[in-house]
Inverse folding.
């Protein structure tokens, strides 16, 4: 079979050379840990601890407050300093539990886990839910909810998103090489929930070493396979990935389950293994620290709640004072207002750059070149949608399929006029979706 792909997309400098060959290093925190109560789509978690309480690593410190919610667990042992408003990586202030690390890393006693073959579907889902696992490569949708579609018998594809198409990020790449067995085990757990499904590891073709290692690892797994994707951005976007693998289209009014698919990324599947096979809750993740202003880029296994400042220090610090800090990838990540923000469940990378290319760009008038249309993976017209957004024409925006935008930023990247197309479209899209929900 040839390489799998979708129409549109771009080929930016991937920047992965900075960190791809750096093995994962465990990093222990020096200072306090900060745990936002909202690290996921849905209702924020409810705190279970108060100022002065001593907690242990792995202890649940905030419980899910509804069906679409997820609990939070302490990643160290220590004393609760209180409930405070702190900055999140996206730059907003949010309610957080703050814990002073005592350095002993005393852990709770975990329940003995049963073999997967002896667990019921309900027990597996409860274990995943109680462990606090959410989508760790995107918006943070609670995984228990994702794995509970209305008609599970209709799910025939479980797709492991191994594309990692965002420039600079290499956390999943290192996980695929260093935690192959845990990744396979996580897929095995998910497949046990869907007897009619096959598991597919979808990997971009520029990660040939990962493809070879995964294919060797699944050679005795009749329900699993590895498929090669064209290396381009945004190959890892959920809708584009599903189309590339299955040729099934998903629009803004649908869920992947509506076309028989469930997509989980590498970090999520590995933590499903830890939750179900080892009984451990989600307390840590791998984060890439990279960019042309980082002295020693690398990939770090860090406890949730650790400050980004400590990651910068562990990566050798800045070469010069940075002009741009980004949480996540350069295409869909957040520009950070401060590095004094905690690593959360969805923090995949911290990037530092010597120059702010976006701020330096001078916007001019649209020249109707249609480059944005050529690269748009959603096959819409970004230049016209941006015009409608700037005129606050919500009805026109919706009529021109503006809700189908996946906010990948490909249009802004190729625009010779340097128009902030993604920002304008994204702002109107969020407004339109909010109004749609109200109706």
């Amino acid at each position: 079979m040839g390489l799998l792909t979708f129409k549109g997309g771009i080929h930016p400098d991937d920047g992965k050379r900075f960190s791809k060959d750096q093995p994962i290093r465990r990093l222990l925190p020096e200072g306090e840990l900060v745990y936002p109560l909202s690290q996921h789509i849905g209702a924020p978690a409810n705190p279970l601890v108060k100022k002065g309480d001593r907690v242990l690593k792995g202890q649940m410190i905030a419980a899910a407050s509804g069906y679409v919610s997820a609990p939070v667990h302490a990643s160290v042992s220590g004393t609760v300093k209180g409930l405070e408003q702190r900055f999140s990586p996206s730059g907003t202030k949010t309610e957080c539990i703050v814990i002073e690390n005592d350095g002993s890393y005393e852990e709770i006693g975990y329940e003995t886990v049963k073999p997967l073959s002896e667990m019921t579907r309900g027990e597996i889902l409860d274990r995943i839910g109680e462990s606090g696992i959410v989508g760790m490569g995107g918006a943070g949708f609670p995984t228990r909810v994702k794995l509970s579609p209305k008609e599970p018998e209709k799910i025939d594809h479980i797709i492991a998103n191994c594309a990692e198409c965002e420039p600079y990020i290499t956390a999943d790449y290192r996980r695929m090489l260093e935690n192959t067995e845990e990744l396979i085990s996580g897929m095995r757990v998910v497949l046990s929930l869907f007897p009619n499904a096959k598991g597919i590891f979808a990997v971009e073709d520029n990660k040939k070493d990962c493809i070879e290692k995964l294919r060797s690892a699944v050679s005795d797994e009749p329900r699993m396979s590895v498929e090669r994707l064209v290396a381009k951005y945004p190959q890892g976007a959920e809708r584009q990935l599903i189309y590339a693998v299955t040729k099934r289209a998903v629009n803004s009014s649908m869920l992947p389950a509506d076309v028989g698919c469930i997509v989980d990324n590498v970090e999520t599947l590995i933590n499903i293994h830890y939750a179900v096979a080892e009984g451990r809750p989600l307390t840590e993740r791998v984060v890439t620290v990279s960019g042309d202003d980082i002295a020693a880029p690398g990939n770090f296994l860090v406890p949730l709640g650790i400050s980004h400042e400590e990651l910068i220090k562990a990566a050798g610090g800045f070469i010069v004072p940075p002009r741009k800090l980004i949480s996540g990838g350069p295409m869909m990540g957040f520009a950070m207002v401060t590095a004094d923000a905690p690593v959360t469940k969805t923090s995949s990378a911290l990037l530092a750059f010597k120059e702010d290319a976006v701020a330096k760009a001078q916007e001019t008038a649209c020249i109707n070149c249609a480059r944005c249309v050529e690269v748009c993976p959603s096959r819409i017209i970004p230049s016209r949608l941006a015009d409608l957004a700037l005129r606050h024409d919500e009805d026109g925006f919706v009529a021109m399929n503006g809700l189908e935008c996946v906010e990948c930023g490909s249009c802004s990247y190729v625009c010779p006029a340097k128009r902030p197309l993604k920002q304008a479209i994204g702002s109107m899209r969020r407004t339109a979706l909010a109004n749609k929900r109200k109706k």
Notes: The first helix runs from residue 121 to 130. The chain has three domains: 21-110+281-353, 112-277, 371-438.
